TrEMBL record, chain A:
PANTHER family for this protein: ELECTRON TRANSFER FLAVOPROTEIN BETA-SUBUNIT, ELECTRON TRANSFER FLAVOPROTEIN SUBUNIT BETA
CDD domains: ETF_beta
UniProtKB keywords: Electron transport, Transport
Electron transfer flavoprotein alpha/beta-subunit N-terminal domain sequence ranges: 24-214
Single GO cellular component term: cytosol
SMART domains: ETF
Function: The electron transfer flavoprotein serves as a specific electron acceptor for other dehydrogenases. It transfers the electrons to the main respiratory chain via ETF-ubiquinone oxidoreductase (ETF dehydrogenase).
Subunit structure as annotated in this protein's UniProt entry: Heterodimer of an alpha and a beta subunit.
Source species of the chain: Labedaea rhizosphaerae
Protein name, per record: Electron transfer flavoprotein subunit beta
A Gene Ontology molecular function term of the record: electron transfer activity
TrEMBL record, chain B:
The organism of origin for this protein: Labedaea rhizosphaerae
Superkingdom as given in the UniProt entry: Bacteria
Role according to the record: The electron transfer flavoprotein serves as a specific electron acceptor for other dehydrogenases. It transfers the electrons to the main respiratory chain via ETF-ubiquinone oxidoreductase (ETF dehydrogenase).
Source lineage: Bacteria, Bacillati, Actinomycetota, Actinomycetes, Pseudonocardiales
Recorded family membership: Belongs to the ETF alpha-subunit/FixB family.
Record note on quaternary structure: Heterodimer of an alpha and a beta subunit.
Cofactor: FAD
InterPro entries: DHS-like_NAD/FAD-binding_dom, ETF_a/b_N, ETF_a/FixB, ETF_alpha_N, ETF_asu_C, ETF_asu_C_CS, Rossmann-like_a/b/a_fold
Protein's GO biological process: fatty acid beta-oxidation using acyl-CoA dehydrogenase
Protein name: Electron transfer flavoprotein alpha subunit apoprotein
Cofactor note: Binds 1 FAD per dimer.
Length: 261, 322
């Protein structure tokens, strides 16, 4: 009966323009539409599949501003049981390591965690490191970039897929898993699920509730500091020609003129 | 001069090109010291190539356990070396493994963690890193404010330059693995790259999209790639349709590439695809839809059928090579 915590993050929709705020060079979260990161839908799906195979409970955990509740509701409407939302103005500008510390503290609030499931990489920060850092902080084995997860009793097996190939991993619970894009197809929330989600418990916590101090976690105390940020001038369109039977020759001539062949 | 630790990314006794990029970057910050963690015998064949990219020292940490567990043995070895060598920085490739090793190391050391950087420079005693974020829309410079900076560098962003290094060998004992906190590797199936260059390392990339139409027809893309000595890439729509394997996906959820030349065949140029390729030096696109957004960023665009244009281009390239 695994007790599962799924980490979900709300990110700016990749279809909208993403910017940094002029003032403190943090992500300008208001300029773009926000959505539950696609990879996290797969993380939720995997948690639900494991739960359905052997019962258990799925808790959604998100660290982010107030409107991250939308992402949390989506995960609940897919079928997760309850949620924890850590929201605190002090977290503005937190870096990967600080975020992982807050997540670890919040996971500590859940009794008897067997499995933490995250996405392998978020689309806004693309750190691809939070799950590993969490494993470090929690002292759990990391089975990351999973394309297949099997839980049998207290043993867990994962097929890890990266650009280096496939690695077969084994460990004992409790463990941290991160999922890759190929793991599953996330379900759509049903109407019933959406209605039920409105009544599911969402516990909202501050940094102080987690026993962390505000000056440990925010922008001012970040372990890295942004010195300057500038938008890159957009690429300009070059020449465009219609193929009149000599398109390939034209490209070849262009490449020669650019000394590329 | 302080040492700069470089974690060597190696397969079958060969260092990846990204390791040479790291050694090149390390020379700007101090004295490069390559760190090889692996099974017994792993370092032997690597030494010569590490020396030729300026490694002054090669730390060799070999044991069966080092190769038998995921990520943690490398973190343990690097932590130990940071303690004994007090380096100016630790550099790793921003691969799946490198990002995870770097993150764990940074939190263990209490160090700032600079992620997926495209350039590094020394400013006085400080390491300043350049990031290219949101698919190249923004350029950001940042530094670490605590401890030994741990930096992951995006493959292909620094031009490797050869230099003579002594590659003086020093062996390091691999700390015992705590099996309860580590994942055991019970088997692996490395990707066999074939004869084409690796996607993130190639100076020319030819990619196909949904417009290619089928797995069989991807041959048109491969033939052009082979004529140019290029790597083959694919859009997510092409991957999702089963035309080409996922490890070749270019874009936000695939690989980020920045080659000298990127040729897009039958790709519309959705924002998520552009995020992975728009920092390429030169972009050529072939698409039959003259409104396709890929043309907004292409240096040279052909409105036409890729099945006519690409084979003709392949032939032209062949002719010029004689
Ligand atoms: C969160 C998220 C992440 C994503 N990540 C990625 C990613 O990493 N990489 C990625 O690529 N996409 C990604 N996408 C998907 C992206 O939005 C697009 O759907 C995808 O890039 C489209 O691929 P395509 O251009 O091959 O297909 P289409 O958009 O279907 O375009 C096919 C093109 O081929 C042209 N064509 C057809 N036949 C021919 C012919 N015979 N000759 C010439 N041209 C022809 C058509 O005119 C058309 O422009 C992501 C989407 C989301 C939401
Ligand atoms: N603020 C956050 N709240 C909840 N989960 C997060 C947060 N940041 C990262 N994660 C989890 O960690 C994964 C990898 O993120 P990253 O390391 O930032 O690329 C995400 O897919 C999430 O599952």
């Amino acid at each position: 009966m695994p007790n599962i915590v799924v980490l979900v993050k709300q990110v700016p929709d990749t279809y909208s323009e993403r910017k940094l705020s002029d003032g403190d060079k943090t992500l300008d979260r208001d300029s773009a539409d926000a959505v539950l990161d696609e990879i996290n839908e797969r993380a939720v799906e995997e948690a639900l599949l494991i739960k359905e195979a052997s019962e258990g409970e799925v808790t959604v955990l998100s660290v982010g501003p107030d409107r991250a509740t939308e992402a949390i509701r989506k995960a609940l409407s897919m079928g997760a049981d309850k949620a924890i939302h850590v929201s605190d103005a002090a977290l503005h500008g937190a870096d990967v390591i600080q975020t992982a510390k807050v997540l670890a503290a919040a996971i500590g609030k859940v009794d008897g965690v067997d499995l933490v499931i995250a996405g392998n990489e978020s689309t806004d920060g693309v750190a691809g490191a939070v799950p590993a850092i969490l494993a470090e902080l929690l002292g759990y084995p990391q089975l990351t970039h999973a394309r297949k997860v099997t839980v049998e009793g207290s043993a867990i097996k994962v097929e890890r897929e990266t650009s280096d190939g496939i690695t077969h991993l084994e460990a004992n619970l409790p463990a941290v898993v991160s999922v890759g894009e190929k793991i599953n197809e996330p379900r759509y929330p049903s109407f019933k699920g959406i209605m039920a989600a409105k009544k599911k418990p969402v516990e909202t916590l501050t940094v102080a509730d987690l026993g962390l101090s505000a000056d440990e976690v925010g922008l001012a105390s970040a372990w890295t500091q942004v010195l300057e940020a500038s938008p890159k001038p957009p690429r300009q369109a070059g020449q465009k020609v219609a193929d009149e039977g000599d398109g390939g020759v034209k490209v070849a001539e262009y490449l020669v003129s650019q000394k590329l062949i | 001069m302080a040492e700069v630790l470089v974690l060597v990314d190696h397969v079958d006794g060969e260092a990846k090109k990204s390791t040479f990029e790291l050694l090149t970057a390390a020379r700007r910050l101090g004295e490069p010291a390559a760190v090889v963690v692996g099974a017994p015998g792993a370092a032997g064949k690597l030494k010569e190539s590490l020396a030729s990219y300026g490694a002054a020292k090669v730390y060799v940490a070999e044991s069966d356990e080092a190769a038998g567990y995921l990520v943690t043995p490398k973190v343990d070895v690097l932590e130990k070396l940071v303690g004994s060598a007090s380096p100016a920085a630790v550099l790793l490739t921003a691969s799946a493994d490198g990002k995870e090793i770097g993150g764990r190391l940074a939190v263990r050391l209490g160090s700032g963690f600079l992620v997926d950087v495209v350039d590094v420079e020394a400013q006085g005693d400080e390491v300043v890193a350049t990031h290219s974020i949101f698919g190249g829309d923004f350029v950001v410079k940042a530094k670490s404010t605590k401890g030994t900076p741990v930096v992951t560098v995006r493959a292909g962003s620094i031009e490797p330059e050869q230099a003579d290094g002594a590659a003086a060998e020093e062996s390091v004992e691999v700390p015992a693995v705590d099996a309860a906190k580590s994942a055991k590797i019970t088997g692996s199936e490395p990707v066999t790259g074939g004869d084409r260059p690796e996607l993130t390392e190639a100076s020319v990339v030819v990619s196909g999209g949904r417009g290619v139409g089928s797995a069989e027809q991807f041959e048109v893309v491969e033939k052009l790639a082979d004529a140019l000595g290029a790597a083959v890439g694919a859009s997510r729509a092409a991957v999702d349709s089963g035309y080409y394997p996922a490890q070749f996906q270019v874009g936000q959820t695939g690989k980020t590439v920045s080659p000298q030349l990127y040729i897009a065949l039958g790709i519309s140029g959705a924002i998520q695809h552009r995020a992975g390729m728009q920092t390429s030096k030169t972009i050529v696109a072939v698409n039959k839809d003259e409104e396709a957004p890929i043309f907004e960023i292409a240096d040279f665009g052909v409105v036409g059928d890729l099945f006519k244009v690409a084979p003709q281009l392949t032939e032209e390239v062949g002719k010029r090579k004689g």
